[in-house]
Known about the structure:
Layout: H1 7-14, E1 20-27, E2 33-37, E3 43-45, E4 53-57, E5 61-63, E6 76-82, H2 90-94, E7 102-109, E8 117-130, E9 134-141, E10 187-188, E11 193-194, E12 202-208, E13 210-211, E14 230-233, E15 236-242, E16 245-255, E17 258-262, E18 285-288, E19 297-303, E20 313-317, E21 330-334, H3 341-346, H4 363-366
Parallel strand pairs: 2-4
Antiparallel strand pairs: 1-2, 1-7, 3-4, 5-6, 6-9, 7-8, 8-9, 10-13, 11-12, 12-15, 14-15, 16-17, 16-21, 17-20, 18-19, 18-21, 19-20
Amino acid sequence: MARTIPGALQTHLDTRRTSLAFCLKITRVDGTELGFTDHDLPLTLDADGAGAIEYSPSITFNRTSQTESDQMQVNGLDLECAIDGSIFTEQDLAGGLYDGAAALMFYVNWASTGDGIVKLQRGTIGVVDRADFGFKAEFRSLAQNLQTAIGAQYAPGCRSPFGDQGAGPMRGCRFKLDPPAWEPGTDYGETDQVIPTVPNDYQYKVQVAGTSDGSSPANEPTWPTTPGDTVTDGTVTWVCMRRARRAGVVSAVTSRKQFTVGDIAGDLAANTGGTKSGGYFAAGRVIFTTGANEGLSQEIVAFTDPTGSPPVYQVTTFLPFPFDLSPLDEVTLEVGCDHTFAVCRDNFLNWKNYRGEPYVPGEDVVFQIKRAPNGGSGK
């Protein structure tokens, strides 16, 4: 495959006595840039115009043979690294910071880094397999994008991730998991939601669009605390809903995927939000905000009704957390959605943004054979 090689570097290659070093740049999903090289000394250079970084020699870094083709299949290799606690950590891997991270591989003349680089491949980090003392990461070339389906398909279930705020033809569900505080004299549209300036256990969704009270001083509404009740604010009508996120504290631990949570504000036993069949927060997420799993989350499979006084709730997650849980770890519980039209309409009052087609006939209807009445041949 033809490449553009800077003139100074081409002159060096033509000497046949080269001083080339292989380099790898990884840009994690949080924006952190890491550089690695197989040279025995650190190299500092700007490989892609994003600014110079240091490429560190690391005995923990290894790569398999590289494959390339002029066809459309995915080219790539495997990267093998040890988890030494300084560069690659269990916490970062478990947190998904390397999932989909951008990667650039190139050669550079270590004796004259200003000569430019020979780009080998650009792509992303794919599947990451962890072992006892390290991990293996799959490098995926840009050809991987050609295997990605583009566009939406008709389906009865909502195809939007819950809480996605996307816009345009592929817009998300636009339900706000963490709405902003109410403001006076503000235009609010149908998708807007707010919480009171003094937060309570509820959030409020626009039922009739308009402008909030803008008098001086502004009169904030007396917010109702019964789900479904409404209040008028200027020309806006708000409808009461229970909060989509609640903070809590781990009170007891059974395993890395089952534990109890207490100190949750509000009465959740009678709450009809979320996917009620599995509990208020079933199909939602639990996010640890302190402890060994800080910043990590898992999907909730079951959330039981309260027991004891003060009440505690048992949480069961789909997958275990990577690190041990401890009592007094703080968590945020996030309500879930089963992506059915009934839940979107009844629990979240969000049917106008439902991203599915619940009434489109399925294959069983499309391929039905019409039969004539009274046993006729139908001809």
